[in-house]
Amino acid sequence: MHRRALLSSLALPLLPLQACTSLRAASRLREFELVAITGDARIEPTKDPVPVWTYGGTVPGPQLRVRQGDRMRVTVFNRLAQATTVHWHGLRVPNAMDGVPHLTQHPIAPGGRHVYEFDVPDSGTYWYHSHFQSSEQLDRGLYGTLIVEEREPVPVDRDLTWVLDDWRITPAGRISETFGNAHDMAHAGRIGNVVTVNGSVREDFSVRAGERLRLRLVNAANARIFGLAFHGHRPLVIAIDGQPVEPHEPEGGRVVIAPGMRCDLLLDAAGRPGERHEVHDLFYPRGRYVLMEFIYEQNAPLPARPGAIMALPANTVPEPDLVNAGTHDIVFQGGMMGTLHQALLDGKPTDMRAMLRRGKAWAVNGMVSDGHEMKPMLELERGRSYRLRMRNETRWHHPIHLHGHTFRVLERNGKPTRHQEWQDTVLMSPDEQVEVAFVADNPGDWMFHCHILEHQDGGMMTVLRVR
Q: Which part of the chain is the Plastocyanin-like domain (predicted)?
């Protein structure tokens, strides 16, 4: 296992075009271009570049930064030999802008282009990625970050983004072509052997004593869950999945972030000049390693900041009516060592052995998905609140992601959550029960799936219709 973290390599970053001066629907229009194209990335700085798929020649793709209330227009050009789409993960966009092939749009054919346009009502940390053959296209590098700044700047010394990922690199220095293999699909997913931060293995990170950092963590991995511990530091969680939360220290001293999730930390550099402090990934007990080291510069410390840390301003997500909410039970089933013996595949009862021959091993309420376009599992009334009582009846972790909406995490195993956090991707442990609630205010057919992408491909995906 290689030590540490990821970022980009190549040149040719795409910069935002000059914003239009006219106002549209009281929003500032910001225009961007993204070009899906092959390239090379120096994932391990001491080794040869690796062929990858990119947005604009870099992995991650260019960071798009706008301000809360802006309107975005993003023109995507496909220069790959394979079709693609772009999904705006965590943003409450109109259904036609959601980037799900065949469900919300036609795939962007090789040589084609597609224009996405939408308002951004919520500030926070978001990301964009392909949703076409996503277990392959994301693993080859098709993702980037989207930062929606608060209307009033947050007082920090540096605002940084760490995109966490892992890669399965062969001894020949190429991405392994073992996409979609049965073992990954039916177990924990595609776990890589090289971990990166912002596209490359990173040994150290320079900080100045006394500075305050806003550190935005984004998990772009297919399957790896990170559990980061910052030795010698006490970071505060200030936002989860882009949504503000009461500032608090992470439970157990680890920042756990599953595929698809984001977490904003406020971190005061409390060390002294010349000190070194390791950042550990402790999520997998038998796979612990050092992600990187904080290296304190020899400069004189910055003066301490007075006053208590204030919470970020709330976003515009509507509060669910828990008293009058409709309730639905959702059960996630399957995988190796599970109890699922058969499920409905193509509308027919299918045993696990036959499912595996079809490249499937997972089900939602006894139904196995076989593509993005499928009959909705639930039909929800627009404007009404709903509780989803979710149960993980498998032996594996699942980060469950709902498109087009943000939900409150109310309970875990029957106990109220401490912070009642807003999320769009919630991690469920084996045999865990989680209850969430949201207002179904965004009409359309919305994907609801595990964000371990091999699990999604293997059947753990469904559609919720808001009408």
A: 43-152, 160-272, 361-467
Note the pLDDT tens digit of each residue in 283-328: 999 999 999 999 999 999 999 887 778 899 999 999 999 999 999 9
The per-residue pLDDT for range 344-375, each reduced to its tens digit, is: 999 999 999 999 999 999 999 999 998 887 89
Q: Which CATH class for the 159-296 domain? A: mainly beta
39/62 Cα distance (integer angstroms): 14
pLDDT in tens, 67-96: 999 999 999 999 999 999 999 999 999 999
Phi and psi at 200, nearest 5°, equal: -150, 155
d(CA 371, CA 330): 19
pTM: predicted TM-score of the whole model, two decimal places: 0.93
Q: What does the pLDDT read at residue 26?
A: 55
Domain boundaries, the chain: 23-150, 159-296, 326-466
Q: Is 19 left (phi over 0), alpha (psi -120 to 50) or beta?
A: beta
- Within this chain, domains 159-296 and 326-466 share the same CATH topology: yes
- pLDDT of residue 4 exceeding 50, the answer is no
Q: Give the three-class secondary structure for 92.
A: coil
* Whether the Cβ atoms of residue 244 and residue 313 lie closer than 8 Å to each other: yes
| pLDDT above 70 coverage of the chain, percent | 94
What gap in Å lies between CA 180 and CA 192, rounded to an integer? 14
The two structure tokens encoding residue 424? 């769009």
Q: Which of 315, 163, 157 shows the shortest CA–CA distance to 239?
A: 315
Please give the CATH topology (third level) of the domain spanning 326-466: Immunoglobulin-like (2.60.40)
Using an 8 Å Cβ cutoff, are 317 and 422 in contact?
yes
Residue 186 has phi, psi (to 5 degrees) of -95, -5
Q: Sign of torsion, CA 90 91 96 97?
A: negative
Rounded Cα–Cα distance for residues 451 and 51 (Å): 24
pLDDT at 305: 81
Positions of E strands within 150-269 = 158-167, 194-197, 204-207, 212-219, 226-230, 236-240, 243-248, 255-257, 262-268
Please report, for residues 28, 29, 192, the alpha-carbon distance to residue 21 in angstroms, rounded to integers and kept in the order given: 7, 8, 45
